[in-house]
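Entry 14. Structure prediction run on the chain below.
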Amino acid sequence: MEYISITNQKIAYFDDKADGQPLVFVHGNSLSSATFKHQLKDQTLNKYRLIALDLPGHGDSSQAEEPEKTYSIPGFISVLLEFVNKLNLHNAVFVGHSLGGHIILDASTRLISAKGFVIFGTPPLGFPPDMGKYFLPNPVFPLAYKPDLTTNEINDLASAFVKKDIEVPDVIIKDIRRTHQEMRAFLGASLIPENLVNEVKIIEDIGKPVTIFHGKNDQLVNGEYLKELNIPTLWQNEIKTIPDSGHCPQLENPKEFNLKLNEFLDQIL
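Output returned:
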């Protein structure tokens, strides 16, 4: 991991500094860049420059000095845009998981030189949002915005991140435990109309190649909703289902995830 200062915060990131096209990975709520370990070390992706950052309050990055401002989608977008500027990653392909997908989608209008976008675990939200349409009913949702999780609650939240009845990867448990507890509470409080945008409109008008991956056994995202979206630049005009995986297909079925990611990159670059 390397470190860079952004608005007086220490932001940790992985960068293999290869000479190829940059890929920037952005993780989900209460996770970290470590959830992309099977992508960052994959031999089939080593022709690209692979970068993954830890958002403030996550992973090895520092806690936010202004948590109410930083722990929000607009706050995380500001950090991502400055990160892109400082490392000159304007022409990257951006890969976002869950919250990370919402961040890159909402930032896409300012990532004008990006080559493409990959989102997964990220149902684009309309405005006003209809959460019952985008997500499946699951009792763990409040835990994603609860600051002080018990051990049982950590395990419950982690279990919802993967398909049912499998052993949860250790990295998920570790990431949830080390996330700044206040982050979840401030993030949840920030999800108010003035901080939300019409992501359905954004992805319809994105004008760049985009692909959406979906874990076939995702316990959180409504896959049927994704099929209803009208996205003119959607790769091969279909949602790409990753079998044998839930909300974290990059961890649960990295072989299939990386295969599809490579196919997308080969066709758009």
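The chain has one domain: 2-268.
Filed with the rest of this week's runs.
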